[in-house]
Design brief:
The protein is mainly alpha-helical and 148 residues long. Helix content is 54%, strand content 5%. It contains seven helices and two strands; from the N terminus they run αααββαααα. Strands 1-2 form a two-stranded antiparallel sheet. α1 packs across α2 and α1 crosses α4. The chain is elongated, with a radius of gyration of 17 Å. The relative contact order is 0.16. The mean pLDDT is 89.
């Protein structure tokens, strides 16, 4: 799977949002500060996340973002696909045109691996990640650092 910074940052930002939205909409500036992700980059990611109905925005004072659905209903693959990332290991085309009009020797192997990765990420929800003890430890540390 070609998971670039776009996909990793999107998952990280949505997880941060989920961890903090209980107090109301979360600003991108707050996510940017806690996660050390450029604000302009977050704006681009959240425009895609909003278009693909992962998040919703609230304008005005106290505005920001919240998840559109429950943390139990948002999978890691939903987020990655929403920001136009691929769940493919290599660029072999689905139609089999890896080398012009012919499949490469290992096409089926890479296609199967891509399917396994996608299935794995489909099965992990934001809620499951939030319940991990290490995630809560990191969240507390980040919150303490941003309060100072």
């Amino acid at each position: 799977m070609r998971l670039t910074t776009k996909g990793r940052y999107a998952v990280t930002a949505v997880l941060d949002l989920a961890l903090h939205q209980d107090k109301g909409p979360v600003s991108l500036a707050a996510i940017s500060e806690r996660q050390q992700i450029s604000l302009s980059y977050l704006e681009q990611l959240f425009a895609k996340l909003r278009r693909n109905e992962i998040v919703r925005s609230t304008r005005g004072p106290g505005g920001g973002y919240t998840l559109k659905n429950s943390v139990d209903d948002v999978s890691v693959s939903d987020i990655i696909l929403a920001v136009d990332e691929s769940c493919k290991v290599v660029d072999c085309g689905d139609s089999g045109g890896c080398h012009g009009e012919y499949q490469c020797l290992t096409h089926d192997l890479w296609q199967e691996l891509s399917n396994e990765i996608r299935s794995f990420l489909d099965g992990i929800t934001i809620s499951e990640i939030m319940s991990q003890g290490t995630v809560n430890d990191v969240q507390l540390r980040q919150d303490e650092l941003t309060i100072r």
